[in-house]
Write a structure and sequence with these properties.
The chain is built from 11 helices and 12 strands. With 348 residues, the protein is of the alpha/beta class. It folds into 2 domains: 21-149 and 286-310, 3-Layer(aba) Sandwich (Rossmann fold); 150-283 and 311-339, 3-Layer(aba) Sandwich (Rossmann fold). The strands form 2 sheets. Strands 2-1-3-4-5-11 form a 6-stranded parallel β-sheet, sandwiched between helices. A 6-stranded mixed β-sheet has the order 7-6-8-9-10-12, with helices on both faces. Helix 2 runs parallel beside helix 10, helix 3 packs parallel to helix 4 (116-125) and helix 5 runs parallel beside helix 6. The relative contact order is 0.16.
Length: 348
């Protein structure tokens, strides 16, 4: 299968950087717009407020950043990002968004449901500014909701886990116990049980709100994964942001499989653990962010709910490494059944 013992260094989650009130930090957008292939900068300034972990989490935030960077290059936007801090009060999120508005950034994109209340409040106070939020349906005439059918993509990697397991025992790690993350687990369970109704599925959540550190604590991810492997699981899926790095390290150490999330983590994780990643549930936040920013560039910003599901490739699964090539036909059949409405994937 793979080597059972490997070097297991895992990249640390990017350090949280404080800079001024609201903990905003300057974007490093030179890499996005310094290429000869990029268009010249125009007048539009785009602000992005990241969730805990920020750039470098190799997952959720990095996917959003990829869409922002692509827009900076191809559409000529000036961009700036700011990052949430673990344990910060609600007022800090509001201040972060308002700082971007005050600095002339329009639109402003909030990455993650933790910004829900802040987006609603700041958008209402700034009706001439366009806002977008990833992962929540905040209402407002100037708010765009970038939503995903996470349960559909999770169904496919759950099916993959059930088809590849040798122990009929798999696991799920959620970063924070919220309704959104439970969508990932619900889909994963449904996919696995579609293949094998008797499969054992272990589950653990690293933290509970208002503690969102479960999205940025690789040590906790490692401990949770190790516990599952010790109890017989041979494949574990995470929806835990930067904490997933700990899962990858544990899987690599024990010769087990991990399943990544949001990004194709067999391409973004530390090279020493990539061979342990069976597949990843792709949540194409970059596509949604770019799609929204393209509508801004076209002069007709999208508003209201914009749902990205399997039918538009808003979610899916990765094939890097070729580890699921032998079951690709079965996964594609499940995908088509979901798109056609023959399978309705639960979200709870």
């Amino acid at each position: 299968m793979r080597r059972l013992n490997k070097l297991t260094a895992v990249a640390a989650v990017a350090a949280l950087v404080f800079a001024g009130a609201g903990c905003a930090k300057k974007s490093t957008d030179d890499s996005a717009s310094g290429s000869d292939d990029c268009v010249e900068k125009g007048d539009v300034k785009v602000g992005m407020a990241f969730d805990v972990g920020g750039r470098g989490d190799q997952s959720f935030n990095d996917s959003a950043a990829a869409g922002l960077d692509k827009a900076a290059c191809e559409l000529g936007f000036e961009v700036k990002d700011a990052e949430a801090q673990d344990g910060e009060p609600e007022s800090a999120r509001e201040e972060r968004l308002q700082q971007l508005v005050d600095a002339g950034y329009n639109p402003v994109i909030a990455v993650g449901f933790a910004y829900s209340a802040a987006v609603g409040k700041v958008a209402a106070a700034n009706p001439d500014v366009n806002f977008a939020i990833v992962d929540d349906a905040v209402e407002g005439d100037n708010i765009t909701n970038l939503l995903f059918a996470e349960e559909q993509g999770s169904f496919l990697v759950g099916a993959a886990a059930a088809l590849k397991t040798e122990t009929d025992n798999i696991g799920f790690i959620g970063g924070v116990d919220t309704e959104l993350i439970r969508k990932f687990e619900a889909g994963y369970r449904a996919g696995a049980e579609a293949v094998n109704p008797d499969i054992k599925i272990q589950s653990v959540y690293l933290t509970n709100p208002p503690d969102f550190s479960g999205f940025a604590d690789p040590a906790k991810g490692n401990t949770a994964a190790t516990g599952m492997f010790d109890k017989g699981a041979d494949i574990v899926y995470h929806a835990a942001g930067g904490s997933g790095g700990g899962l990858f390290e544990a899987a690599s150490e024990q010769g087990k499989w991990a399943i990544g999330v949001d990004s194709d983590q067999a391409k973004t994780a530390d090279e020493s653990v990539r061979d342990s990643i069976l597949t990843s549930m792709l949540k194409n936040i970059d596509v949604a962010v770019y799609d929204f920013l393209k509508s801004v560039a076209d002069g007709e910003p999208k508003t209201g709910p914009q749902v990205y599901d399997l039918s538009v490739d808003g979610v899916g699964y990765s094939t890097t490494g070729g580890h699921v090539d032998d079951i690709a036909d079965q996964l594609e059949e499940y995908k088509q059944q979901i798109v056609d409405g023959e399978i309705t994937v639960p979200s709870k």
